[in-house]
Amino acid sequence: MTGQSCDVTLRSTVEVIPSYKAGKRPVPLDGVTAYKVSSNENPYPPLPAVREVIATAGGDVNRYPDPANTELVAAIATYHGVDPDNVAVGVGAVALCYQLALITSEPGTEVIFAWRSFEAYPIVTQVAGAAAVQVPLTSDGRHDLDAMAAAVNSATRLIFVCSPNNPTGSIVSKAEFDDFMSKVPSNVLVVLDEAYAEFDRSDDAAHGIETFREYPNLVVLRTFSKAYGLAGLRVGFAVGHPKVIEALGKVALPFGVNVIASAAAVASLEDDVELIERVDQLVAERARVTGELTALGVQVAALGSSAESQANFIWLPLGERSVEVAEALEAQGLTVRTFAGEGLRITIGEVEANDRLIELAEFI
Ligand SMILES: *Cc1c(COP(=O)(O)O)cnc(C)c1O
Question: Which CATH superfamily is domain 21-40+273-363 in?
Answer without folding.
Answer: Aspartate Aminotransferase, domain 1 (3.90.1150.10)
